């Protein structure tokens, strides 16, 4: 079983947040890589111009639409197809604490992945997803998580699964951010062949 993260793996959450805050994404990305290369959380970049509380307030004020309108990355469907080619694949996403986050995430998955009918599909659309914060709860031998968070990856592996850190501006694999599938897909194929 493959568990595929959504934000920063399939959907451009960071770019949307920075745009919502009135900041230039590429300028922040460049600064982030130089000034805070070990920092995963955008709001923990030193001297970030907006407090985490203010930023989350602006995101929450946008409601479900903020989440449902995130742009898929150019590789989103190719990655999902590559995952499905080697094993059953489930989108696994953590909502914020605001209730509109889960609603918006579900709308995003239905809009962009509705063409993939789930295993138990009854015509309602895409069903292969889980929404919840404890991603490690589904970890087990033979399960693989693809996620941009080093913390989520470590917890998943500590609970018996295998994790692949997806290249992102906020992690040590940022050098592969422009072509993440070149490193992730071979690692996935290798992990699934070992698990199988």
UniProtKB/TrEMBL annotation:
Gene3D superfamilies named among the record's database cross-references: HAD superfamily/HAD-like
Gene Ontology terms for molecular function: 5'-nucleotidase activity
Signal peptide: none
GO BP terms: deoxyribonucleotide catabolic process
InterPro entries per record: 5'(3')-deoxyribonucleotidase, HAD-like_sf, HAD_sf
Domain of life the protein comes from: Bacteria
Catalytic-site annotation from UniProt: 5 (nucleophile), 7 (proton donor)
SUPFAM superfamilies found in the cross-reference section: HAD-like (SSF56784)
Family assignment from sequence similarity: Belongs to the 5'(3')-deoxyribonucleotidase family.
Name of the protein in its database record: Uncharacterized protein
Species whose genome carries this gene: Plesiocystis pacifica SIR-1
